[in-house]
Amino acid sequence: xxxxxxxxxxxxxxxxxxxxxxxxxxxxxxxxxxxxxxxxxxxxxxxxxxxxxxxxxxxxxxxxxxxxxxxxxxxxxxxxxxxxxxxxxxxxxxxxxxxxxxxxxxxxxxxxxxxxxxxxxxxxxxxxxxxxxxxxxxxxxxxxxxxxxxxxxxxxxxxxxxxxxxxxxxxxxxxxxxxxxxxxxxxxxxxxxxxxxxxxxxxxxxxxxxxxx
Length: 213
Known about the structure:
Layout: H1 3-14, E1 19-23, H2 31-40, E2 45-49, H3 55-62, E3 69-73, H4 78-87, E4 91-93, H5 99-107, E5 112-113, E6 115-116, H6 119-128, E7 132-135, H7 143-151, E8 158-161, H8 170-174, E9 182-184, H9 190-194, H10 198-208
Parallel strand pairs: 1-2, 1-9, 2-3, 3-4, 4-5, 6-7, 7-8
Helix pairs in contact: 2-3, 2-10
């Protein structure tokens, strides 16, 4: 997969809905009903972070949900890429970017949403052919004003800001011309997942699906 192909696919995924749920799931038995609730609420692109022992099994379960587009977050090493691809992930998300990580994603045809927090990092990825990036950590890196400023000299790059994005500030990102979507964890709070309250999660997803419109 070329960088241009990866960026084109990442743009398609990021255009599915204004919010990509960032999911930390401890129990794989929750995976399928959680994904079904989020997809039913209008958020089909799902990022499962590789932060729990159950993450790969969660990806495998969610990959079977009709209408869902499941990706793996927190990709750091080539081994992460291989494991995520084998589990059924159809895209990857990384907090940053290394040559080894990008090489692995290209070799395995896994579209990568690579992280950048500065103009230099964004320019390095653009030089390699990537023009759809993750802005992380968004709020800690200056929030929407910083991303707007980066966009002025680099209008050809689009971003998915993640990290500190909430219902209170999501609109400030989504109204920027260089933002296609944002990543957020509030649509799947741990207490609702623990209670199997899929109706409430679907409601949060429906509300999030209208942001920026």
